[in-house]
Amino acid sequence: MDKLVIFSGNSNKKLAEDICKYLKKPLGKILVSRFSDGEIQVQIEENVRGKDVFIIQSTSHPVNENLMELLIILDALKRASAQRITAVIPYFGYARQDRKDQPRVPITAKLVANLLTVAGASRVLTLDLHAGQVQGFFDIPLDHLYAINVFFNYFSKKNIENLAIVSPDVGGIKMARAYAKKFGADLAIVDKRRNTPTSTEVMHILGDVKDKNVILVDDIISTGSSLVEAAKALRQAGAKKIYAAVTHGVLSCDAVEKLENSFIDLLVITNSIHLSKEKQSKKIEVVSVGKLFAEAIKRIHFEKSISVLFDGIRR
Question: pTM value?
Fold first, then answer.
């Protein structure tokens, strides 16, 4: 472990500290600040020559600031002669822009993949990508972790009876099916039609949720419209307790207010994105993916397979 060094940008230092705690390694010394005109200043404050370096940085809000931080840190590590540099990106921003769904639009996820590679990343470690095909945008190795076991461990302690797993839209069927198999629960799907980028109209429920406790599963909650509308439809269909398990708590705009006024009893998110004080709520609980990332980092460092971390997961 002497050659293993872990650094963190400013986006999610608490998660980086959790990871280091599990690995019993100190967080690497790095200066990440701003010049007077707003330019990002980075200086690696310890020797990394010939080291196996991991840099932990979610590209969450402010997305462009955090992404630029990551790129500059990667360049600094490359120029400091690190042997291998792994970009650990718990939340991969721009992943939703993964295809041309309209004329004359970019595929920004591919652009970000190119930027990370050129900046000096040797490999990428990330969690619950919005679209699986983003893995193919990289010409370097990418390890893709899933939060399903973290959520399973959390909800198993609640001993929820008569459980159904629900996908809030048709696009999330694959994820919901994996959760339903893991939990040994029924599967249901909310069929919806999107009116605008921030509002949806629910059509109907595919599956039986009457008198059942349900867990809505998704990878991202942004404005919260989809989950809130889905919860409303589920309650109208006779569901009892309504939980939501979402990997990345983006929680933009008035998402927290929507959540507090919704039929969702509890939203469980991971700490892939730091939850700021103004977004905290009695209806939101955070579970840590620190141990998951720590185990993956250790296995990558010792050149071991990380497939053991996917035990019981079939998508």
Answer: 0.92
